[in-house]
Amino acid sequence: MLCLVTGATGYIGGRLAPRLLDAGYDVRCLARNAGRLRDVPWAGRVRVAEADLSDPATLPAAFKGVDVAYFLVHSLGRRDFERLDREAAANFAAAARAAGVRRIVYLGGPETPAHERPSAHLRSRAEVARILLDSGVPTVVLRAPVIIGSGSASFEMLRHLTERLPAMVTPRWVSNRIQPVAVRDVLRYLIGAAALPPEVSRGFDIGGADVLTYAEMMQRYARVAGLPRRIILPTRVLSPWLSAHWVGLITPVPNAIARPLVASLVHEAVAHENDLATLLPGPEPMGFDEAVHRALGKIRDADVETRWSSAAGRDAAAEPLPTDPEWSGGTVYVDERSRPVNAPPDRLWRVIEGVGGENGWYSFPLAWSVRGWLDRLAGGVGLRRGRRDRHRLRVGEALDWWRVEEIEPGSLLRLRAEMRVPGRAWLEMRVCRGEDGRSVYRQRAVFLPRGLAGHLYWASVLPFHGIVFNGMARNITRTAETR
User: What are the strands, taking DSSP E only, across 110-172?
Assistant: First the structure.
């Protein structure tokens, strides 16, 4: 059977694809840019179809011959995410029906109680589910609450809130009941759904072994992580909007994503049925403590497969490279640095590939920290996204406020900025060889301004470039020489 996985550059899709392969399925991944899957460990085992769910004309070839199609994309973080997801689901459903796909599988969110007004996030998930169920193709909708696993947005929110705040004043929603589910169980259900008989076409609640309030989840997390019991004081003052900004400041999850997630927590998320267990018999769902223990072990061992920040925005694939011919004729600001290095090229490359995250940026930490906080206050991602792996990078993954745009192992790392700036920015780091045979470190920052604000922005930061970029070049080469 051939499975089509959308969202393979994201958190769940990036874990599902290799497990489908291990289960004996053929896998085709749909991606707007095939290059974003170039460096994943299982890249050589799948086929990649370049297509865009917002463009129906690109879809027929991607769906040709597909037996099971997984809808695992969402536009959370975009202001118009409801419209984008509605259109993507409608195009996906039409393409699946036209291609004779035998099964659609969708990972959605929990149902909102009938007497409550759903959040925009849950309303959108329910709308996508209805579109897919009405497609004429047998569809399984898995309604998942908070997913516990290394790298998930929900887990990162829980982890950072608990670890960074020994005492906290919390909103009322921390008293709502939730049935968190381990990412391992979510993946098992997704794989099992592919083989369900065609007469099964409906939604299923999925959840873990425990039903807890969010406050209890924080206390249980603290216990598993070896932290003292947290002091939690619920209050009616903090609205979902205020608490989302609070989450955005404390955790790596930016406001644009924290807002819809927090708004969804005002509803209880408990499974009302367990029918899937009859259709897909298997091990009992994992308990909360074990799921947290496993997630922390993955983080400790630097073995995080995918992270919530893995998925790039819809516009990323359309952005031109700094070297594109169409840049000619426009204003481009460039800061270039070059230094000889008394170290072999492979040692210099290890330093370059290790930048960011816990390793830092080798220059004026206070300036980087302040700029990161300013970006967070403006609703951007800041520096807290960190790295997935301390030593290795992949094309397409997040690195603090950058996105890895290109890697040529041993010679080039190009990063594209995702901070809030009036324009587009890139940072390139290269390993070259000089005329005397020594290694040479070359660094290039490129900024394409947008309007007057972009020009003013570049002028305002220009005085700091000599300190920040020159210090960065100096310290990267010095580190390579002394390692």
Answer: 139-143, 147-148, 167-170
On whether the CB atoms of residues 105 and 69 are closer than 8 A, the answer is: yes
Instruction: Count CB atoms within 10 A of the CB of residue 25.
Output: 18
d(CA 37, CA 49): 11
Which two tokens mark 387?
């790295």
**Which residues, including other chains, have CB under 8 Å from residue 353's CB and lie 6 or more apart?**
391, 392, 393, 407, 413
Residue 248, token pair as written in the block: 């955005």
Reference 164, options 242, 247, 224, 257; nearest CA is 247
Comparing 183-187, 218-222, 288-292, 391-395, which segment has the lowest mean pLDDT? 391-395
Query: pLDDT tens across 159-187, in order?
Result: 988 998 899 888 777 888 999 999 999 99
Measured CA to CA, the distance from residue 383 to residue 162 in angstroms comes to 19
On the question of pLDDT at 189 being above 60, the answer is yes
Sign (positive/negative) of CA torsion 128, 76, 99, 3?
Answer: negative
Residue of higher predicted confidence among 103 and 324:
103
Q: Which residue's entry shows tokens 């299923």?
A: 204
* CA distance linking residue 312 with residue 332, whole number of Å: 24
Of 116, 338, 156, 147, nearest in space to 252 by CA: 156
- Residue 212 sits at φ, ψ, to 5 deg, of -135, 160
Beta carbons of 480 and 347 less than 8 angstroms apart: yes
Phi, psi of 413 (to 5 degrees): -130, 120
Share of the chain above pLDDT 90, in %: 56
**The amino acid at 465:** H
Q: Per-residue pLDDT tens for 303-333?
A: 889 887 776 554 443 344 555 444 444 678 8
Q: Which two tokens stand for residue 138?
A: 């047998």
Mean pLDDT of all residues in the chain? 88
Chain segment 327-353, per-residue pLDDT in tens = 444 678 889 999 999 999 999 999 999
Has this prediction a pTM greater than 0.85? no
Q: Which of 421, 436, 157, 149 is nearest to 305 (CA)?
A: 149
How many residues in total does the chain contain? 483
Beta-strand pair 103-108/139-143:
parallel
Q: What is the dihedral of CA 160, 177, 186, 380, to 10 degrees?
A: -40
Q: What is the pLDDT of residues 59-89, one digit of tens each?
A: 999 999 999 999 999 887 677 888 999 999 9
Phi then psi dihedrals of residue 406, to 5 deg: -155, 140
- Residue 195's pLDDT is 95
Residue type, 128: V
Type of residue numbered 227: L
Q: Which two tokens stand for residue 261?
A: 């997630």
Q: What is the DSSP letter of 58?
A: G
Closest CA to 62 of 4, 136, 132: 4
